[in-house]
Structures are given as C-alpha cells and as structure tokens.
Amino acid sequence: MSAATVRRSDLKFRVSLNLRSVLGRAYPRVIGANREPSWIVFEGILPLLGIAAYVFIYQSFSEAAIAAISAGQCGASACTSPEQQAAFLQAAKANVNALVASVVLGGTMVAFWLNVLWSMASQLYWEKEIGNLQLYMMAPMNRMALLGGMAVGGMFMTSVRAIATLVAGVVVFGVVFQVADPLMLLAVFFVTLVALYGMGMMFASLYLLWGREAWNLSALMEEPIFFSSGFYFPMGGLFRIPGWGSAVALVGSIVPAGLGLDAMRQLTLGPTAFGGQLWVLSALVELEVLVVLAVVFLILARYCLAYLETLAKREGKLTSRHQ
Amino acid sequence: MSYAVETRDLTRIFAGKRKWFRRTKAEAEEDGAGTGPVTALDGVNLRIKEGELFGLLGPNGAGKTTLIKILCTLLLPTSGQAFVAGHDVAKDVFPIRQRINMVSGGETSGYGLLTARENVWMFSQFYGVPSKVAKERVDELMHVFGLWDKRDAKVRMLSSGQRQKMNMVRGFVTDPDILFLDEPTLGLDVNAARTIRDYVMNWVSDKAGKTALLTTHYMAEADEMCDRIAIIDNGRILACDTPENLKKMIRTETTFRLEVDPLRETTAFKALPGVKNFSHKQDATTNRSQLTFILEDEAPVAEILSAISAQGAKVHSLQKSEPTLEDVFISMVGRGFG
Asked: Are B128 and A141 an interchain contact pair (Cβ–Cβ within 8 Å)?
C-alpha cells in the first residue's frame, strides 16, 4: 500500500480549491499592483491628458455654437424670440456637458479595455515567457479559476484606477451627471465588465498559441476599437454616417464596452441627451445584449482554453524553449 | 510494488516549425525553426519506486527536461505511456497534479511586486492549501532554506540564489508526494547548493512515501544524492542502476586523467589499441587540455604519452583514478558532458 498522502477530490474540496485559486491569482493584481503609489500618476492622472484633448476640442466647437446663438443665430436661421434664443443656448450648454461627460465616461472605460487587452488577453503569453504558465498548468486548479482570478484582480485594480480618473475628470472638467436609476447603472456596469473580461479570457486562450503575434494583435486592437466602440463620442453617431458608419459600429458593438458605454451614458445623462438622436438602442435592450455577450464569451473562453491547452500540450507550447 | 513513476516505451517527437518565410539555414538554426522533427525521447522505459531519490543524468539536449514536462502533465507523449502515482499523464491529470510539484534551476517565476512570502503563498493556493497552513509552512521552509531575512523583500529585489531558494520553498509548500527537480542547484553557491541537497535527501529518507526525480549534469551531486541513476543521451536510457553499480560496470577498466598543454589533434587517441573510450576538455582558465582515458588495462599509457609528446605538448599531470559517473558516461557514449 502506498505511503503517500491521501488527497481529497470531492466536490467540496474542488470548489474550495478553485475559490482559493481565484483569490490567489487575483492577489498580485489587488495588492501588488497598488503597492507602488506611482500608479496614481501614471494610471490615474496621465489618462486625463487624453480625455482633456477631446474635451477641449468639444468645448471649442460648442463655444463657437454658443457665440453664434448669443449673436442671434438659432440653428440655420435667425432667432425669432428671446425665449427661442434662451432655449437654444440651454440646449447648446447641455450638449457640451453631455459631450464632455461622454468623453470622461469613455476615458474611464478605456482603462478597462486596455487592461483586458494587455493584462488579460496577452497575459498567458507573458506568463509563459516568465515561467509562471507551466507552474499554473501543472497545478490541480481548474483553468477557468486561473482566468477568473486574473479577471477579478484586473477588474478590482482597474476599478480603482477608473474611479480615480472619473473623479479627477468630474472635478477638473466640471461634468454634471444625472443618475435616475442607480441600480440599473450598476447592473449595466457590472455586466459590461463581466462581458468585457469574458472576452479577455477568450482572447487569453487564443493568444496562448500565437506567441509574439499576440502583442501585435493587441496593439492593432487598441486605437481602432476606441473609434468603433465610441470611447470618446456616442457610438450612435457612427450609425448616422451613411455607408461604412453602420458597419464599423456593428463591429464595435461586439466589444462589450461599446454597448455598455452607450447604456451608461443614457443612464447618467438621460435618454434625451443629444436630443435622443445618438443612442444605439435603449439601455434595457443593451443590458440584455450585454448579458448574452457575457454568457457567450465565458462559454467560448471555457472551451477555447480546454481545446487550446490540449493543443499546446501536443505541440509543446506551454513552455518556452529556454524553460 | 507501487511505482511513483513508470514509463513504457515513452517517445516524444517535436515537429519542426513551419517555415512561413524563406530563410537561410543559419537563421533557421538560430531560432530552431524549419529544422525538421526532433526526437527528444525515444522509447524510454523507467520505473521509479515510491520513496526513491532517482537521478536522471545526461548532457544538455539529452531529453531530461522533456521527460519531466511529460511527467508534470505539461506535454503529451507522441507514443507510449507514462504513469505518475499510478495515473496516466495523458488521461487522468487531476490526481497527478495534486501530488506533484516541480522546481527548475534558473527559474524566474513569480511576480516582482510581491514579497517572497506572498509569492509562495500564492502558488500554494493553486493546490488548495488552506491559507493558515500555507503561511505556517512558508515560514518554516524559509527558515530551513535561509530565506527568513528576505521573507518580506519584493521578489525583484532578490538575487538569483535567493530566488532559487524561494522556488525550493514553493516546491515543498504544497507537500507533494513526488517532486521533480530539474537542475535545482544550477548557479547556486556551494552553501546554498549544500542546503538544498541536504534538505531533499532528508525529505525523501525521513518522510514516508516521498519521491524525488532529480535531473542534473553535476555528476558529484547525482552520485551523492541518488538511490538510483538513469543515464540518458539522445532521448534513450543507456543504463539505470545505483551509482555504485554503475561505477562497477567499468571497474574492470582503468581510468587515467591527464592534464597537458593544448593539443592540435585528439581524434587519433581513440584509435590507439587498448583505448576503450576517451574524452577531451579544454580548461579556459589554465589553457590546458584535460584528457580522460578509459583503458582496458594500463598497457596503452606509454603509447598515449608518446603520442602527446609527438605533438610537442608537455604532460603536467597524470593520475590513475577510481571511476566516476562521468567515466561511466564516457565509457557508454564516447564523450564527456563538457
């Protein structure tokens, strides 16, 4: 009879093992990444510069419009009454706030998209390079626990950064949000993150086989997605561009941040902002689509990882040549 | 008899990488691409008993690490079978993964922003070790491996030796039944290597049911530590026995070591009558050639000395010695590790 230690493999043990694994893998992101305060400058303050660029452009456009209204020009024709002029002026100012608020919200969500690209999708490749991947893959935990830990840690770490950016954006640019349904807003935010990180988990599996090409793909998906998913402007605007606009917006909608941002903008600015013309779908429908995306991405991540792990074991790609 | 590890005709062939772009032969050789299939393991049959400290001795590229990766469920065999703790590495990985751990020399795993203690704790969580138990074990092992003073230092601030000690702590913290040690003392100073060797030997001998598979190309380390040793070269097991028995295999032969001035030509030595095998190393620090001869008897020594003199080289030392594991290797494959 073997003298080796008896090991448990019952369901209770497996659940506990995987929960511990999620916490273990989330730990470096939750604790380690916030250990050095330099992140406040690099990831809290510096992103404001990108936001500021868009804010100043939108503000300069609006100032021109406000100056024209003040000079008696209401739209294409001259103002017919002081009441009409005041209404146009109020609408113009509301539009400025809505645009700036859209940019601040988009800039906040940029942190999550970058985290998904560089710290989720590319992560397993990076882990392979430093020698962690083989240690993860020979551990008894479920692989989804590994990805789940990365996602939970990433969400927490990025939320801290995103909140810092959001608060700084509100204070610096004087944005006003009007949240009528905070529960719905929280639900949209949470489901958007689950769908977004589910997508990252799926990419992480695919990147496992691609190696260095993964970095190029991540770089390729950065700026174009900022545009197609409407990070710095309401995505519905793309649908109003005849021809290619709708196609680009549809592609952008696959990235959950696109619809998530659209819904969050509706819920923080009111459905009548931008005259109600620039929204893609209603916030509720967008939430439903996001739930579907979240489920699909998580299932795909599960199967991709299982398939690609077997493929990587067959082809010898779980470790680098020097390991 | 229960075997901790058993392999049956285990073969692993790595397919050459596809050539996406036409490249020169030198470029292909440099990155290993387009070089065609490589047979890393060729029909390996091994049985490692539970409670054994088993050594796998071979030069770089012999297939040691490939074998360990298969046993650690990181790589699938091309053909044949491998069993760890009685479970098939290709079909039944969960019970294997619960029972094993691995430490490699020169490993750079972990996260630089975490402390040594946090890093090891993190890895223990992937094995379901309760947090309190894990922390107690980490502290105990950090004392054993002389890392206690550095327990709260960030990993990126550790020296490579301290990092390797942390890796050893990681290997033991999950209380594995079977530990794979892939050149664990690589690059360590004498004291650190001694600490690791002693701990591993005591761990196997004092705790029931613990098995270690050690790969190394330090002959003395394998000789000192291992109950049995398999000599592997080009993916094949050439011999497998206790260090003593392996050395007995060539005890009927005579081993001579010579230190001489650099030689222009050494291939002719092998053809001398009575020379069974021969290896040659150049010592860069002394700028002298170190020759090891495995002879059928002492008769060819005079002829060897005159062949050296014929090249105008001076003999600085000549020593008849007891066979070492390296001599066993030279006797079997006709070359040394160097």
From this structure: yes
Q: What is the 3-state secondary structure (H, E, C) of A211-272?
A: CCHHHHHHHHCCHHHHHHCCCCCCCHHHHCCCCHHHHHHHHHHHCHHHHHHHHHHHHHHCCC
Interchain contact, A2 vs B2, CB within 8 Å: yes
3-state secondary structure of B233: strand
Q: Residue A181: which region, alpha, beta or left (left: phi > 0; alpha: psi -120 to 50)?
A: beta
B169 touches chain A (CB under 8 A): no
Q: Is A36 on the interface with B (CB under 8 A)?
A: yes
E strand or H helix at A208, and its extent? helix A182-210
**pLDDT value, residue B219:** 85
Mean pLDDT confidence for B284-289: 86
A112 burial level (CB within 10 Å; 0-12, 13-18, 19+):
buried
pLDDT (0 to 100) of residue B338: 58
Best to test chain A binding among B49, B50, B73, B75 (most A CBs inside 10 Å): B75
CA distance A130 to chain B (A): 6
| Cβ separation B14–A318 shorter than 8 A | no
Helices (H), B147-228: 160-173, 190-206, 219-225
Query: How many whole angstroms separate alpha carbon B151 and alpha carbon A301?
Result: 36
Asked if the C-beta of A33 comes within 8 angstroms of chain B's C-beta atoms, the answer is: yes
DSSP tally for chain A: helices H, then strands E = 14, 2
Q: What share of residues in chain A are helix, strand, coil (percent, to 5)?
A: 75, 0, 20
Closest-CA distance, A257 to chain B, in angstroms, reads 29
| pLDDT, tens digit, 9 for 90 and up, residues A40-94 | 888 777 888 888 999 999 999 888 889 999 998 888 888 889 999 999 998 888 8
DSSP assignment of A104-149, as one string?
HHHHHHHHHHHHHIIIIITHHHHHHHHTHHHHHHTSSS-HHHHHHH
ipTM of the complex: 0.85
Tell me the shortest Cα–Cα distance from A147 to chain B, in angstroms. Answer: 12
Query: Which tens digit of pLDDT belongs to each residue from A242-288?
Result: 889 999 999 999 999 999 999 999 999 998 898 888 999 999 999 99
Looking at the DSSP bridge assignments, the partners of residue B179 are: B101, B212
Dump pLDDT digits (tens) for B320-332: 887 788 888 888 8
**Could you read off the pLDDT of A93-137 as tens digits, one per residue?**
888 999 999 999 999 999 999 999 988 888 888 888 888 999 999
Q: Would you say residue B276 has pLDDT above 80?
A: yes
Q: How far is A219 from chain B (nearest CA, A)?
A: 22
- Tell me if A1 and B2 make a contact (CB, 8 A cut-off): yes
Query: Which of A38, A138, A309 is the best residue to mutate to test the B interface, defined by the most B CB atoms within 10 Å of its own CB?
Result: A138
**Helix %, strand %, coil % of chain B (to 5):** 35, 30, 35
The mean pLDDT of A216-226, rounded to a whole number, is 87
Residue of B131, B97, B48, B172 lying closest to A7 (CA atoms): B97
CA distance B249 to B236: 18
Q: For chain B, positions 234-293, list CB contacts with chain A under 8 A.
A: none
181-220 in chain B: CB under 8 A from chain A: 208-210
Taking alpha carbons only, the member of B33, B16, B36 closest to residue B24 is B33
| Of A213 and B167, the one with more pLDDT | B167
Chain B positions touching A308 (Cβ under 8 A) are none
Q: What confidence tens digit (pLDDT) does each residue in B212-252 have?
A: 999 987 888 999 999 999 999 999 999 999 999 998 887 77
